[in-house]
# Entry
Amino acid sequence: MTLRQARGIITPLGWSVLGAAVALFLLAFGGGWVECAIAGSALLAALLAALLFSIGRARYRVEIDLRTRRVVVGEPASGRIVVTSTASRALLPSRMELPVGDGVGRLAIPALRPAEQHEDLFVVPTQRRAVIAVGPARSVRGDAFGLVRREVRWTDPQLLYVHPRTTSLSGAVAGFFKDLEGQPTDDLSNDDVSFHALRGYVPGDDRRYIHWRTSARSGALMVRQFEETRRSHIAVALSTDAAEYADPDEFELAVEAGASVVVQAAKESRELTVVAGGTPVPAGPARRTLDRLAGVQIDDRPARTADLEVGIVATARRVAELTPDVSIVFLLCGSTPTPAQIRQAGAALPVGVRVIAVRAVPGVAPSVRRISGLTVVTVGALDKLPVTLRKARG
# Structure
């Protein structure tokens, strides 16, 4: 082992022991204290002995197999780690560590003959919504006192997505999405499905849209003109400002309500935009959107130090910037935003947008009320969201 390699594996405790040994030797030579020389020699011998424990190289092939990469909060998640010896001789027992989220699993690997395998099962906690990194698996060599630690990394980390709970909104939001053919707008078109009026024919008009009966009565060619129609563009705007939630449970309920809208919009093939705080969630399949929502965290930084506004008003403004053609917006917040803040958030959105503000307040009775043209829904449990939205859609 070279001196450079030794420096890389000595732990902070090991460096402290080395520093103490040097100090004791200085006291011994400067003051003639034999006891200090003995103590310094003992510390130095312990460090050198610890270095001996790190000598040697294991030859493994390590595989981590997660049975699934996506689960819902509370669902079981497990996996296995398979360690195979690739050495040409028997390997001595060793230790291996497997980081799982914020924790570390410690595995004892027995002595393995060439090509022999050892398998261990592990369970990943899924009590909370999260994106959990599993791995990298690493073998560890060192002494019992922690003076020396040598790690060898064998795998790359794998991500496990713990999705928020959702509830089915089938039928609950049908009143909000009334555009099987599209919603008419104020823009006129020569080719659509929403009839607007008749006008005189001009060269270039499609003859399929000539209204022959009116043309015969008037003596001039008349063509149909239409209003442009668009499919409902839905936006889910989630406030991530800690000041707008009384406790973390309110935030989790708000995320679950937003995720339920995402799933329903995907089932109905609706165009969807999701904004969490000031950050847009990349569009894609519902599964990918839920992956992103699994990692959304509440922002508890003071407003003066935050780089980005994340409250309900700022989030609504961000939705208006990203999707000026949005038709339905679900604003998600906790119990603390005032009616004035909710009105301000609604005013930040384009005129004519249907706004449903969903207040997440665990434990309260569901309610629906109107604030300056906005529909404000208060839900106390996820399973009450569908029936509450049915009351609000009228």
Observations:
- The first strand starts at residue 60 and ends at 66.
- Residues 183-230 form one domain.
